[in-house]
């Protein structure tokens, strides 16, 4: 059932182009507009929303962090993202105009379920983004947008994450479409780009051999740091989470701009630091800033592992290892930038002799609070 792969995780990483395409299937009409009727929250109601609150755990929380950038940019609706386990205990401000989005692969995560119950008690509408048909979270929500990743068996989430991102983009673009924002043209262009993105994910998968070799060469390291900015910041957090859970290594993700506020003191000779570089097109100011961050850490001896768009030459002089990803619109970059980090963590875990599909101390769905 592993389809010729040694681990479910490898199989699920390889299935990502299909998972992404399947999650888009039937949701973009012939005119390039989104049809999300299945969501069952009417356009009039969506126009009334004055706040979006996303609750999730672990990898799904990272998808939520990325969704915030997309939702606020395309809809101008304020969006908060909160760890489901923290949410209800701080007495959050919610009412009938808040849309709460609960993201969960399994649909059975107790922390997320308790958060959505709390939101519904406050009169908010809850939209679930879920990969498991008929599971508890969608059953208890007002509406559901299913991800079509297929069953995810490995404890470490991979294809579910990419499809959660796709679902989040769809919701953000749909809200923008329904409410009509000044980004109308950009929204249409991004919908077009989304419909090609699975091919880009495929292209990334075809170039992963050097990433595997790099991972094997780092098997005896104690720490790996991950840096990113903008949507690359949650990608850095996700890269670090994968490494902790699979390789049992100390790994941390930081917003690159925070380096100078403390973490730069951690940099020492030969410390591997993975940097997710935003596109030099689009928000290019971010790109320039991260290039100087790379210079700073390299000057202090870090071994820089740079994930950058094809054609981005500015990073070349400062990259000890360069991992290329295809050019995408800024907000969609996590769909391609996360893949090398999954492969990296999986290979490091294998090199360290760890059980890839079933890491120690973890369960696939966490049904206790
Ligand atoms: O089933 P869920 O999406 O609600 O699970 C949430 C987290 O437990 C899950 O993403 C966890 O962090 C993964 N093992 C990470 O790879």
TrEMBL record:
Homodimer. The active site is at residue 364. The chain holds residues 259 to 627 of 627 of the full protein. Residues 42-181, 214-359 form the SIS domain. GO terms for biological process: carbohydrate metabolic process; fructose 6-phosphate metabolic process; protein N-linked glycosylation; UDP-N-acetylglucosamine metabolic process. This is Glutamine--fructose-6-phosphate aminotransferase [isomerizing]. One of its GO terms (cellular component) is cytosol. Keywords: Aminotransferase, Cytoplasm, Glutamine amidotransferase, Repeat, Transferase. Signal peptide: none annotated. It catalyses: D-fructose 6-phosphate + L-glutamine = D-glucosamine 6-phosphate + L-glutamate. The keyword Amino-acid biosynthesis does not apply. The keyword Ribonucleoprotein does not apply. Catalyzes the first step in hexosamine metabolism, converting fructose-6P into glucosamine-6P using glutamine as a nitrogen source. GO terms for molecular function: carbohydrate derivative binding; glutamine-fructose-6-phosphate transaminase (isomerizing) activity. Its EC number is 2.6.1.16. It is found in: Cytoplasm.
């Amino acid at each position: 059932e592993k389809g010729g792969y040694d681990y479910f995780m490898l199989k699920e990483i390889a299935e990502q182009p299909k998972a992404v395409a399947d999650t888009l299937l039937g949701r973009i009409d012939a005119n390039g507009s989104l049809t999300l009727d299945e969501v069952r929250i009417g356009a009039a109601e969506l126009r009334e929303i004055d706040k979006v609150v996303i609750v999730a755990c672990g990898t799904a929380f990272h998808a939520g962090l990325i969704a915030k950038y997309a939702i606020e940019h395309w809809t101008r609706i304020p969006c908060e993202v909160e760890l489901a386990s923290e949410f209800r205990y701080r007495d959050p401000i919610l009412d009938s105009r808040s849309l709460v989005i609960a993201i969960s692969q399994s649909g059975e995560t107790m922390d997320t379920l308790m958060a959505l119950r709390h939101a519904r008690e406050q009169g908010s509408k809850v939209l679930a983004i879920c990969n498991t048909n008929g599971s508890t979270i969608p059953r208890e929500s007002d509406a559901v947008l299913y991800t079509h990743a297929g069953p995810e068996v490995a404890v470490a989430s991979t294809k579910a994450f990419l499809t959660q991102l796709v679902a989040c983009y769809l919701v953000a673009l749909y809200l923008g479409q329904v409410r009509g924002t000044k980004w109308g043209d950009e929204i249409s262009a991004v919908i077009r780009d989304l419909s090609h993105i699975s091919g880009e994910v495929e292209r990334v998968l075809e170039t992963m051999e050097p990433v595997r070799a790099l991972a094997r060469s780092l098997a005896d390291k104690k720490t790996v740091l991950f840096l990113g900015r903008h949507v690359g910041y949650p990608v850095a957090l996700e890269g670090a989470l994968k490494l902790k859970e699979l390789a049992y290594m100390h790994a941390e993700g930081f917003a690159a701009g925070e380096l100078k506020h403390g973490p730069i003191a951690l940099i020492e000779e030969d410390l591997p630091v993975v940097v997710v570089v935003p596109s030099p097109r689009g928000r290019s100011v971010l790109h320039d800033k991260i290039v100087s961050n790379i210079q700073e850490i390299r000057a202090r001896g870090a071994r820089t592992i740079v994930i950058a768009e094809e054609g981005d030459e500015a990073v070349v002089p400062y990259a000890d290892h360069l991992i290329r990803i295809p050019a995408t619109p800024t907000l969609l970059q996590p769909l391609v930038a996360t893949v090398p980090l999954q492969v990296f963590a999986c290979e490091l875990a294998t090199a360290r002799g760890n059980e890839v599909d079933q890491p120690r101390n973890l369960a696939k769905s966490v049904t206790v609070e």
